[in-house]
Amino acid sequence: MCKAFFRVALSTLFFLSIAAVQPAQVQASDLYTSSLNNLVLSGNTLLTSMSQITLTPFTMLSQLTALEASVNSYQDSVMTLYDTMANNTTTMSLASESLIALQNLATLSASLTTQMLALSEAIVLVAPLTSLTVLESSLMTMLRLSDDIGTMANRILEMADKILLMADNIGTMADRILATQIIQSDNLQVVVDASLTTQTNILTLFCLYLKC
């Protein structure tokens, strides 16, 4: 009777220990997935607002200043999650939803950078009609925006690496992880290329209108 009771007690403790550990892992995974998806949603909102901007010589500076505030707010959200992951040393079970969110974030980073390139090209078109003071301030704002979005793209890539380091089920997710890494790499190249072209456009305008 005592032995039977002892076995039951051990079994109970075993299952209770599993119940105590499993929810923590699932909760960590769900927490990151939710946070990543929130970044995707807010990033898409930012991208939509960027695509709706039509620059003119008279509104360019105010529009870019407002955009800079929005980008800074989004960057703060990215950095908050990045810092949380950077300080986390626990392991978790990697969810497919997390990989999908990381893929979406990589694509979103590339789209934001491409939209920045479109804005720099719009500035080139209206530059001859814009006052030098407004043009100089606008170009400085564009340089900061380009740098901020490039930094965000790097942090998103680093978050993906951190999640993989924390994952305890990499073997079962190998194919999806490989696909995620390929998407991250391809979109990072888009970010780099578009950022360089944007900065080239801005520096060219500096030379033409402000440094002659």
Report the sheet-strand fraction. under 5%
Q: Supply the number of helical segments.
A: 5
Number of strands: 0
Measure the end-to-end span. Answer: 97 Å
Low-confidence stretches: 1-28
What class, by secondary structure content? mainly alpha
Main sheet summary: none
SSE arrangement, N to C: HHHHH
| Overall body shape | elongated
Helix coverage percent: over 70%
Supply Rg.
Answer: 23 Å
What is the residue-averaged pLDDT? 81
Account of the 3D structure:
It is a single chain. The protein is mainly alpha-helical and 212 residues long. 85% of the residues lie in helices and 0% in strands. It is built from 5 helices and no strands. The chain is elongated.
Looking at this protein, list some descriptive labels:
5 helices, elongated, disordered N terminus, 212 residues
Brief sketch in words of this structure:
It contains five helices and no strands. The chain is mainly alpha-helical and 212 residues long.
Detail the topology: elements first, then pairings:
Layout: H1 2-51, H2 60-86, H3 96-126, H4 132-166, H5 174-210
